From TrEMBL:
SUPFAM superfamilies: Periplasmic binding protein-like II, Winged helix' DNA-binding domain. One of its GO terms (molecular function) is DNA-binding transcription factor activity. Keywords: Transcription, Transcription regulation. Transmembrane segments: none annotated. Residues 9-66 form the HTH lysR-type domain. Belongs to the LysR transcriptional regulatory family. InterPro entries: LysR_HTH_N (IPR000847), WH-like_DNA-bd_sf (IPR036388), WH_DNA-bd_sf (IPR036390). This is LysR family transcriptional regulator. It comes from the Bacteria. Gene3D superfamilies: Winged helix-like DNA-binding domain superfamily/Winged helix DNA-binding domain (1.10.10.10).
Amino acid sequence: MVNGGMAMLDMMSLAIFELVVTNGSFTQAAAHGYLTPPAVKRRIEELEKQIGVTLFLRTAQGVQLTAAGKLLHQQAPALINHSESLLKQVQHYTGSQAKVIRIGTSTLNPASRQSALWAEVSRQLPDYRFQFIPLETLNMGFPMLYQHLGEQVDLLVGPSGFQQTPSHIHFYQLATAKLTLTMCQTDALARQAVIQPDDLVGTKLALIPQYESNAIDQVYDYLAQAQIKFTAMAADAHYTIETFNRDILPNQPLLTLDCWPAILPGTVTRPLNLPVSIPYGIMAPLKLTPAMVKLTNVVQQIIDN
């Protein structure tokens, strides 16, 4: 509480509040926001504590808005939009201060992999400073992070099209990633240097469900045309370290990319010989501030050269 007892609304908590309202429960809100139910519950409890009122009635069927919650729900979209508009106006300020660019980094897609690129950008733009933000520390998951790109992080690095990547972002391709399988090192397939499509006959394979990714749909189509019969086990629509922990089981490999390191002890990664490749690069918001326009122009020039 500040300014004589006036509560300050946290916009991210407000966005999660709207997610709960839309989905009717903490569990469904977590699933759609790619968060955990405890994280959603914690943010709602923090929001209620901030403003000093109960927003939801908890029931066995889910949650219902209180009278105060209904009032907040009526105003929340306008508050969120105003906050985003104000943030963009502030970000347009390009005074003499160093321009800080926040780059999201994670176990799967570490920003350090592009250290040569960042070094060259720093050489050409000496007044810019990079701040690397661990995505695991944010109270926001995918796809919400794509939708709010520019708020907590300005740039993301990773594959585009393998997972649920929206079309309304700028993408700067750095490389092309190839399909791999990550599996327990005791699996029979682990003894092979390269996995052929025929090797998948009769196996269980963890991968993104059909119709959720254009690239993965190509995998389904190719295997169907080749009459490769396998059992598809649903993996997350967006991979995190938990996807690897949960979905790699004995004799159940996980469809992965060669840009991701073998991050779990006791697992190995093998190339999968399928004619499908995935663009890998930098993702930026569709609406760029002047500072971001200058940076992305330099990035594009480096890529072109």
